[in-house]
UniProtKB/TrEMBL annotation:
It comes from the Bacteria. It comes from Deinococcus malanensis. Residues 1-35 form the signal peptide. The keyword Signal applies. The lineage of its organism: Bacteria, Thermotogati, Deinococcota, Deinococci, Deinococcales. This is Carboxypeptidase regulatory-like domain-containing protein.
Length: 278
């Protein structure tokens, strides 16, 4: 991967054509993160009620090496399980609330995870559906120490399955801001820069670096024609390889191909952030 010092706080000298890159400083996940809180609005719900889960003091994406998300699973599910009844990705805020669809009777947990360390549960809270009278529930912090990825070679990061019943995602890339990450070996996903699709022809990197692009709806492909991303190509998708809802895989050297089989290091991944990147 080529590096462009205009967009990296630390740079690497290579013999290839400069291109946009991501920060080389590995995210420090070797010590406990700040106390994180996860709790539901009730300890018990009826089968017709949606489940409201509040999160507080959760470090942002760029601080933990990638997207953060909350899953709802049966209480008996192993912590390392990657499938879920429903998954909600957190936007660019340390505090907020996500809403899950109504469930069948049973005992469940909401669990906070990071894509950079999916086997670890950062915080959790339990609740039941259709089994007892609803009462308020207090916060339940559970800080954890994520483990680094051994070795330096790019590896494929497993992705939580997007369950049936979630909100329908946009068929084409939404206008707005995207946070771009790239796999950095032991450092996991490292945040590099942000760009916005301003309209159907113009994009902006950070705050004031403009360029033009073209999008073909039939193939879901983008071509960056001018500006700081000139020469890059992208592929829009919503589930599969490292997907975080609306996602654009970016390649500085031609079309994105073999998305599922290529190593993470071959591409950058732009994750849509409706509230902007913070």
């Amino acid at each position: 991967m080529c590096f462009n010092p205009r967009y990296a706080e630390q740079t690497m000298l290579t013999g290839c054509r400069p291109a946009l890159t991501l920060l080389l400083t590995a995210t420090a996940l070797l010590s406990p993160v700040a106390a994180q809180t996860l709790y539901t609005s009730k300890t018990a719900y009826s089968t017709s009620e949606t489940i409201r889960v509040t999160f507080k003091e959760v470090p942002l994406d760029h601080e933990v090496g990638g997207p953060r998300y909350v899953v709802v699973v049966p209480a008996s599910a192993p912590d390392a399980q990657t499938s879920a009844l429903e998954t909600q990705y957190l936007q660019s805020d340390p505090d907020g609330t996500v809403v899950f669809r109504a469930l069948q009777p049973g005992t469940y947990q909401a669990r906070l995870k990071y894509m950079s360390s999916m086997g670890l549960v950062q915080a959790r809270t339990a609740f039941t559906v259709g089994m007892s009278k609803a009462v308020p529930t207090p916060p339940n912090p559970r800080p954890a120490v994520p483990a680094p990825t051994p070795g330096g070679a790019p590896v494929q990061v497993p992705v939580p399955a997007q369950p049936a019943g979630q909100a329908i995602l946009p068929a084409n890339p939404p206008m707005g801001e995207y946070a771009v990450y790239q796999w950095n070996g032991p450092g996991g996903f490292v945040y590099g820069y942000r760009f916005s699709l301003v309209d159907s022809k113009r994009y902006r990197v950070r705050d004031n670096e403009w360029g033009t692009y073209a999008y073909t709806a039939s193939s879901k492909r983008l071509k960056f024609l001018t500006g700081p991303l000139k020469g890059f190509e992208g592929l829009y998708y919503t589930k599969g390889r490292n997907a975080d809802g609306p996602t654009i895989a970016l390649s500085p050297s031609g079309p994105v191909v073999n998305l599922e089989s290529r190593a993470n290091g071959a591409y950058q991944f732009g994750f849509f952030r409706p509230g902007g990147v913070k």
